[in-house]
Amino acid sequence: MGHLRRGGALAAVLTLLLAGAAPASAAGPDRYRNPVSAGFADTFADPVVVRGDDGLWYAFGTSDPLREGEGRAHRVPIARSADLVDWTFVGDAFTAGQRPAYAAPGSAFWAPDVRRVAGRWVMYMTVTDTTVSDDTFDTAVGVATAPSPAGPWTFADTPVVAPRPGAGGGYLWTIDPSQLTGADGRHWLYYGSYYGGISVTELSPDGLRAVGTSTPVAVDNKFEGAYVLRRDGWYYLFASTANCCAGPATGYSVQVGRSRDPRGPFTDRDGQRLDVSRAGGTPVLTQNGNRWIGTGHNAVLTDLSGQDWIAYHAIDRAEPYLDEPFGVNERPMLLDRLDWIDGWPTVNAGAGPSDTARPAPVTTGPIDARFATADLRGWRAEHGRWQATGGALTGSGTLTSRTRIGGDLRAETDLRLTGATTAGLRLHGVDVRVGRGRLTAGAATTALPAGLDLRDRHNLAIEVRGQQLVATLSPSRLGDPVAQVSARLPRPATGNLSVRAEGGRAEFDNVSAVRLYRPARHTVPDPRVGPVLRGYSDEFTGGLDPSWQWVRQDPAATVSGGALRWPVQNADLSGTANNAGVLLHDAPTGNYVAETKVTLDLGEDSVRNYQQAGLVAYVDDDRFARLTQVAIWNTRQVEYGYELPFAGQPVYGGSIVGTPGTTTWLRLAHRVDPVTGEHEFRAGSSRDGKRWTWGAVWTFPAGTTPRIGLVAHGGATPAVTAEFDYLRFHS
């Protein structure tokens, strides 16, 4: 998304770690460093990356200035790369005066999504201001088409999704579009944000119009920035949560749910739905204590080895703004490995965003034919006639690479049937071909979606691991398979790769074969939780222990029957109010985990802003990290809020960590960075005290002495009492 949020209220409530920093080009051969956009931009928010017909990679970003001091927003900037690491600015997708007929003068274009639909390139984007009303945020989803990712791009004169009046006034946030072609070949568009939630609508076959009735898939006031892909029969909805743009307190992060149907319902790893008041969401990407915070608004791409990567933006906490404080948030593009472990995606096996040199994506290999020239000396014609012209290979019969390949590998090609009845690849003696309404691998076969036009370019990919071969056909190679088939090889084999066309001519491009990626099998460990430190802990069995200290004592807080009962105060800590009570306890030195169990009946669905209770790591009223179950509009969330002084004033933001119950267990895992001396606090939550969701890390400067405390504040109407069973410290 761009910069706007639903007023200030949402922003106000809303270890194996990686360290270091340098431009991508400084990392050395076959390695890279984040941010990958450093060579052409200081900020490149809401990125999406596609592989073009020319075999190069194209990235698109939100309308912002690219460099500090530039002062002029680019209108969907485009960058190009041969290796996904070193990028060059291509230009803007749209000229200064170019806009669709329904867009108001001065409208910005945010969060583009680019796909191949019906044989051409299609871009969906947020149009921030339309002619529908005088409201300057009556947003719509616009669409443009182009013959290549580099353009030229031409707007359609009607929006895909028009502005939608909101029941609470103004217009629902019709932003952050993301397209998907489903397993049956139908096209879908996901869109929306906090005000209105995320919805999905079917698209017309050309991808330019919404048809039918939209379906809500993620609750309002929690999610935006949808991105959906299909894997192993599941549709995965990635969505960003919390605030994108709170400068040094930004806690934006990516969560995911999955469904067997593109219309949902989507549920997380614990079975919690994403479209209900107590919405779930399995963490995919969140800040880990290094330089990067606000890690969100993602896209997913696949390199030539089959390894998935996540492209996203983040904020360097040491340089959070593009120019002056409190202006444009500086959000460069980052790239990290996306692993799939036990059916769920996670970044760097759960370690989170990287800022050290890392192995680079695989973008070339032993076979990597782009057919930019007529030279076919690396190939031999088994039969038929073949020629390379216009950047593609055309012919019929069989053409075989002279390079022998073997072992676990991935081969792929872009192809079109321009007269052939079937066409495809031959690998290790197995023909993988499309045509006559089917995708076939040896004796195995599956039907293609009805109406699929193989005269349009599609990507055919083959992965061989051991003796298992899996072939996939997709329109955009962006997690959008329309057909998949598996075959068993009689034995691991070594041989040559061939392209084949029968019954006429076919067009092939971007033919490659490289070693298949090696998947991560295990996530990095969660924080260690050792034995209870009895000397620091309090079970609330004999009144309030004298070791507790109050900041603004609340006489309504009482201890009896093994619990601390604290009526939620009509007070707060965020901003300049600083009128809420804080009950503090000294913490152990070194590494520890603080834990509490809190019961707070916040009901469901109703607006009870911003009643909350939970743990706090506290230095003073303007420097704290607060982990609470909280009512945010109609939702119930576990928010990990953070405030720090910046440029002469307190700045507040937050991240979301798990799903609250009426009773929620909360943990803060503390460690001291041995290099910087910073205090790092990682947040965790649980609905049963057994299965934990771990999330973001907030940091405190070296030389501070954070204490651990309890809070219950945010609003006294309706009256509700928080009940704390204990505060425990674990080694």
TrEMBL record:
It comes from the Bacteria. Transmembrane segments: none annotated. Pfam families: Glyco_hydro_43. This is Beta-xylosidase/regulation of enolase protein 1 (Concanavalin A-like superfamily). The lineage of its organism: Bacteria, Bacillati, Actinomycetota, Actinomycetes, Micromonosporales. Belongs to the glycosyl hydrolase 43 family. The keyword Methyltransferase does not apply. Residues 1-26 form the signal peptide. Coiled coil: none annotated. Pathway: Glycan metabolism; L-arabinan degradation. Keywords: Glycosidase, Hydrolase, Signal.
